[in-house]
Amino acid sequence: MSDVKLFTYADLEEHKSRNSLWLTIHKKVYDVTAFLDEHPGGDEVLLEEAGRDGTEAFEDVGHSDEARDMLLKMYLGNLNPAEAAKNTTTANGKAQSGTPAPSAARFLMPIMVILAWWVYRQYFA
């Protein structure tokens, strides 16, 4: 039997403040409270991801190996596999389960609309 502690999104929701800030990256749960003032990107970056899955934000920045090693000191346990399978979305549209929000679709949709409009004008107007 493993000694790794398992957490749920409800557990993470309880730790979304400056006084206690947890998040999950790659299905591992970290307490980043002590790192708030030291984070090179500012504390607001961590506060925005507080209490949920910060994998996409973490990977989008392209953190160094040193930054990844720092996570080892903040490790609390793993996200419960049943929770990791959930695909819940927050109010701002970010996926919590590690599934990336459809950012490419949001970028391509306006281009596709403009292209469709242009094709319509060229062939049907």
Automatic annotation (TrEMBL):
Keywords: Electron transport, Endoplasmic reticulum, Heme, Iron, Membrane, Metal-binding, Microsome, Transmembrane, Transport. Pfam families: Cyt-b5 (PF00173). One of its GO terms (cellular component) is endoplasmic reticulum membrane. It comes from the Eukaryota. Its main location: endoplasmic reticulum. Residues 4-80 form the Cytochrome b5 heme-binding domain. It is found in: Endoplasmic reticulum membrane; Microsome membrane. InterPro entries: Cyt_B5-like_heme/steroid-bd, Cyt_B5-like_heme/steroid_sf, Cyt_B5_heme-BS, Cytochrome_b5. SUPFAM superfamilies: Cytochrome b5-like heme/steroid binding domain. GO terms for molecular function: heme binding; metal ion binding. It is a single-pass membrane protein. Belongs to the cytochrome b5 family. This is Cytochrome b5 heme-binding domain-containing protein. It comes from Cutaneotrichosporon cavernicola.
